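Same chain as my last thread, 217 residues:
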Amino acid sequence: MQPNKKRGSHFPISGIKTFVTCEGIEAFLNVLEREFFAEIYAECRYDVNKERTDLILDIYCNFGLTESLHHFNNGSWGGMSINKDSHCPSRFDEAFQKLFKDNNHAIDIAELSLHFKDTSVVVSRIQDYSIPEELGSIIYTLSEHFVYFTKGLTEMPYEIFVPVFEDIDQHALEAEGQRGQYYDFWGLYFNDEINHDVLIYDLKSKTLKKEDFFLLD
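reply #2:
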């Protein structure tokens, strides 16, 4: 099926309790606000079955994606390494690791959304801790592929979903859980003034196409 905008669909109703906060969350959000120059909103959901708190983070930036990527490549936005293959500790990593320890290793980021003036980038968890470990590389990849997913700098998608998946067995996909899947296919929403045009961006071929894909939920 075609990808569609699903917010907060990662959690079944059964076994989930929503809390206002978790241990150390205020300090963690303060770091994110400084590093992203943004307003941060967080929702904590406790999974009773997994005995883990899942965070949904919304990061609101008062500038466009192009400006943010420029500062990111200069090392002055996001508190993360600009090297796609680098695994050096960053300020973002350090802040999350402290939050992780403060909550007895029972917390993760389930979804992180970067909201810019011209688009939103929604990153979904594909396996445990995949977002905090891969976010810097995902932003770096946005910069690398910017000219291609904007149709040669002619049109900005108003939402970018990272990742989307081929229409295959979802349980097999979840079991495989490879972080490399972040760099296979993204879902893009364009506004053609009549309809919401949904396209798939293939990172390997650097092409846009219409296919049957889905968001992991």
